[in-house]
Amino acid sequence: MKAVVLVGGFGTRLRPLTLTSPKQMLPVIDRPMLEHVIGGLGRHGVDEVVLSLGYKEDVFREAYPNSECAGVALKYAVEPEPLDTAGAVRFAAEAAGIDETFIVINGDVFTDLDVTSVWNRHHEVGAEATIALTPVDDPSRYGVVPTDTDGRVLGFVEKPPVGEAPTNWINAGTYVLEPSVLRRIETGRKVSIERETFPAIVADGGLWAVQSDAYWVDAGTPETYLQIQLDLLDGVRGPAVDGISTDATVDPSALVERSVVMSGATVGANAVVRESVVSMNAVVGDGAVIEGSVVGPGAIVGAGSRLAAMTMVGEGAQIEDNAAYVGAKIPESE
């Protein structure tokens, strides 16, 4: 079973963390986000993943020099230019020689979706494409997918105005596709699978959906990047994990509450880390207070400083002693 994982985006919403790393390579508890995603696919029988690469593609190659991730074989397809979602799928699938039914997933989706059930339903109804759906409170940010009672998709409405969505079931970013879908995607230009390809398949009656209320988070924003880690600490997804690495150094007088302190990180005397992430090899100085924020790899937070309200400190950045930041991005980026 083969899958294309889309990881080519710039991750602009997660800057400054993504100034130095693709978002799918950002750490989640103890390993990159990508390893959580591919590990989930592997548990459903996927044995080969094609990474659709673009931004900082070398970071992926360097991380997995043996072309294996979470026990799954990797292939790489590097877009010559951004091709949007459908263009990226076609380019990656053809580069890897995929000529049979395959899976596509967005590389920043954290989910407990039963991929096997989507795969089985796809074959049961003879669909050309089958998409997983998840319910959300505000569907205006997503692709909304109304279906009939059997699950055949009736339409595909990308990001409808607030209050005008026909349903709250949205595209969950996991698809099962027949190779014929690739022939629908024009080459040589950007093509959106949500705005062009799927509506065309709907018109031909070949798009089906599987609804699931399993755990699902689009981890592409600072808030959701923090959420997926706190959910693992809280046991929302399986048994609760310990967020403090055995290779971290936390002073006995420091207070770490509902937070992740990764390998090589240091938390100084009388410091407070609450509902936050302190990444690998970062340093939190004596008496510093970090609440609801993310400190990137190798960053240094000076003694007595205070970070709050989703302050994001990029890789290697330094916060001076006794500084205070609320909702800041350090360094700032456009």
Describe this structure in words.
The chain is an alpha/beta fold. The protein has two domains: 2-219, Spore Coat Polysaccharide Biosynthesis Protein SpsA, Chain A (Alpha-Beta Complex), CATH 3.90.550; 242-330, Hexapeptide repeat proteins (UDP N-Acetylglucosamine Acyltransferase, domain 1, 3 Solenoid), CATH 2.160.10. Helix content is 20%, strand content 28%. It has helices at residues 33-42, 57-63, 84-95, 115-125, 180-183, 193-203, 222-234, and strands spanning 2-6, 27-28, 31-32, 48-53, 68-69, 72-78, 102-106, 109-111, 129-135, 143-144, 157-158, 169-177, 207-211, 216-218, 249-250, 255-257, 260-261, 266-267, 272-274, 277-278, 283-284, 289-291, 294-295, 300-301, 306-308, 312-313, 318-319, 324-326, 329-330. The strands form seven sheets. Strands 5-6-4-1-7-12-9-13 form an eight-stranded mixed sheet, sandwiched between helices. It has a five-stranded parallel sheet with strand order 15-18-21-24-27, with no helix packed on it. Strands 16-19-22-25-28 form a five-stranded parallel sheet, with no helix packed on it. Helix 3 packs across helix 6 (193-203). The longest helix is centred in the C-terminal third of the chain and has 13 residues, at 222-234. It is elongated and about 65 Å long. The two termini are 40 Å apart.
